[in-house]
Amino acid sequence: MYYEDAPAEPDYEPSISDDTFLSGIENASIGYQSTMTNNSAMKRQLKMLEDLRKLDKGYNKTYRYFNKKRVPVEFYTTCITPRYPIRNAITGVYQRDYLVGTKDEYLFYKVANCADKCNNDQHVMFFDSPEQYERHFYVTVDQESKEKWLEKFNKERAKRV
Fold it and tell me: Per-residue pLDDT averaged across 9-26, rounded?
């Protein structure tokens, strides 16, 4: 509705708050550009990390189907040479105090991967537990195997305490 006798708006003068608002818009656009720059920098870093992983002989990547979706699974294998440090299958960190071919292996859930083509002939992986293996590879380990591993683990752990 339009009223002829409605008071006219007072003359508009920009105030300090308006300048602050405008500078905020400019800063927001700069922030947007820096976010784009950060994203591209992060993509470059991820690409470099992927290239570094490919240089690692123990690094492997395979795909599994989980909930009808193809999911990438990255893992690290351990060299099976006796007295070689055990390597965590998920993080790739070498467990320097635990060696292949000794009873140290009883403290880990050991899996030989024969189904997938790996980057090398070392298809042995060491996990902290069968449950960790199940979560990482989207598989199920039978209860008998879990109990057998837990028994060996507990015996070895009791000797070390």
Answer: 50
Distance CA(44)–CA(160), nearest Å, equals 45
Alpha carbon distances (Å) from 8 to 3, 4, 11, 113, 134? 11, 10, 9, 81, 73
Residue 3 banded pLDDT, cuts 50, 70, 90: very low
Return the ∠ at Cα 83 (arms to 82 and 88), rounded to 5°. 95
The region that residue 91 occupies, defined by phi over 0 for left and psi between -120 and 50 for alpha, beta otherwise, is: alpha
Contact 55, 40 (CB under 8 A): no
* Burial class of residue 73 in the structure, from the number of CB atoms within 10 Å of its CB (0-12 exposed, 13-18 middle, 19+ buried): middle
What is the DSSP track for 56-103? -TTEEEEEEEETTEEEEEEEE-B--STTPEEEBTTT--EEEEEETTSG
Q: What distance in Å separates the CA atoms of residue 123 and residue 130, rounded to the nearest whole number?
A: 17
- Over residues 40-88, the pLDDT tens digits come to 888 888 888 888 888 888 888 888 898 999 999 999 999 888 999 999 9
